Amino acid sequence: MNIVSIEKCDSYSADEVRKAIERSYKNLGGLEKYIKKGDKVFLKANLLKKNKPDDAVTTHPAIVEAVASTIKGMGAIPIIGDSPAGPFSERALRSIYETTGMIDVAKRTGAELNYNTEEIVVKISDGKLIKQATFMKALMECDSIISLPKLKTHGMTVYTGAVKNQFGAIPGLVKAGYHLSMPDVKDFSDMLIDINVFLKPVLSIMDAVIAMEGNGPSAGKPKKVGLIISSNDVFSLDTVATLIIGLNHEDAPTVFMAQRRGLGRFEDIKIIGMNIDDAKVSNFDIPTLRGFSVTEKIPPFLMKYLDKHVKPYPIFDYDVCKSCGICVSNCPPKALKMIDKKPTVDLKTCIRCFCCQELCPHKAVSIKKPHIAKLFYR
Q1: Quick one: average pLDDT of 173-183?
Q2: What is the distance between the alpha carbons of residues 232 and 200, in angstroms, rounded to a whole number?
Q3: Residue 137 burial by CB count (10 A; 0-12/13-18/19+): exposed, middle or buried?
Q4: pTM
Q5: Which residues of 266-282 are buried (b: 16+ CB within 10 A; e: fewer)?
C-alpha cells in the first residue's frame, strides 16, 4: 500500500516548512528508508521559467532548502535541477536559478546546482506508449530522484503535480517533439506515466502551501492551500492532491489514465497526517479543459466536429503583449507567426498544447472556450 502524507503548513517561513517536512518524512517511514549516506540525489523542482517565488509558478525555495538541508545533513549529495522550457543551456539555467531563488538555496545548504546540459537516450522497454526517451544526463547519473512539484492547474492537462513534474526530465526544446507527436491529451498523459514508471522517484514532496488556480501553469492566480503533500508514489500523491482541490479524477487526464493502468487507485492509498476532508479547499478555480472524461464517450465521427468547433484555443491580449516572440519560437507545431509584430495563431495547425500560454512572461495569452463547448464540457 502506498502512503500519502498531508501536513499543515500555513507559510513559507523556514521553521514552519522544516517542521512540516520533518513530519512528512516521519509519516513516510523516515528519510533514511529512501536515501543512504553518499547517495547522489537529484532534487527535481518545478522551475518552469524565470519567475520569482511569490508568483507561485515554481517550487518555492523554502521547500527545496528544507529538503536539501536534510539530505546534506545525512551525508548524501543533493543536486538541484530541472530542464525548464526553452533552450537547455548553462546561461538559461543560471538565469532561472537566480530568479527562482535556487542559487541562494545552494549557498545556504551546500547543495549543488546542475549545469550539465548533456542528453542521454534510454530504452523504456515496458512503456505503453513510448519505448525510449531523451533525458537529462545529470539526472540519470544520480542514485535517486526526489520530485518537488508545485500544485497548479494546467491548460492542457487540467492539473499539474507529481506526475507532470517529471516532464522536466526531458531536456529543453526536446519537449516540443513530444508535444508534436502526442497532441492527444490521453496519449500525452500515457507518455508521462511511462516516464514516471521508468524514473521511479523515491519520494515526491509537493509544494501546496500557495498553489496556482485558474489560468495555470504560469498565468493563473496564487491560491492558499496551506499544505505539504508527500508520498512514496507519484500517482498516489496526484490522486490525493486532486481530491483536495475538488477535481474529479475522471476530469484530470494524468490521474484518469494512471488509474486505468492500476496506478494511484484511492483504495490502495493510506493517508497519514491530516484527515483529507479537513485538508480540502473550496472554490478552487479549475481551467477550461475540465470535462475530459466526457470526450471518452463520444464517437470518433463526432469528435472530428468537436475538434473544429468545441476545442478551446489560445487568444492573445495585444494590449498586454510585448511582442517578445517567446510564444512563436516555442510553438511545437509552428502554428504561431508574428504579423505586424503580434502573434497570430493558425487554429488548423494548433495542437492545443498551450505552450504559448504556459511560457508567456507577460500573461498575455489566455484559453478561450467556445460557447457551444458548454453543451459537452462541464
Answers
A1: 89
A2: 9
A3: middle
A4: 0.89
A5: eeebebbbbeeeebebe
What is the spatial distance between Cα 127 and Cα 343, in angstroms, rounded to a whole number? 37
* Nearest-angstrom CA–CA distance, 175 and 167: 8
Calpha distance 21→228 (Å, rounded): 7
What would you measure as the largest C-alpha separation in the chain, in angstroms? 59
Q: Which amino acid is at 183?
A: P
Q: Which grid cell sits at 29?
A: 517511514
Separation of alpha carbons 243 and 365, rounded Å: 28
State residue 371's pLDDT score.
64
Asked if residue 287 has pLDDT above 70, the reply is yes
CA separation, residue 94 to residues 102, 124, 135, 174 (Å): 9, 31, 19, 19
> What would the pLDDT profile of 56-80 be if each residue is shown by its tens digit?
999 999 999 999 999 999 999 999 9
Q: Please state, as a whole number, how many other Cβ atoms lie within 10 Å of the Cβ of residue 291.
A: 18
Q: Are 225 and 151 in contact (CB under 8 A)?
A: yes
Contact 152, 220 (CB under 8 A): yes
For strand 221-231 and strand 2-8, is the pairing parallel, antiparallel, or unpaired? antiparallel
Q: Which comes out higher in pLDDT, residue 14 or 355?
A: 14
**Pairwise CA distance, residues 43 & 58, whole Å:** 13
Give backbone dihedrals phi and psi of 306, rounded to 5 degrees, phi first: -60, -40
Cis peptide before 217 (omega within 30 of 0): yes
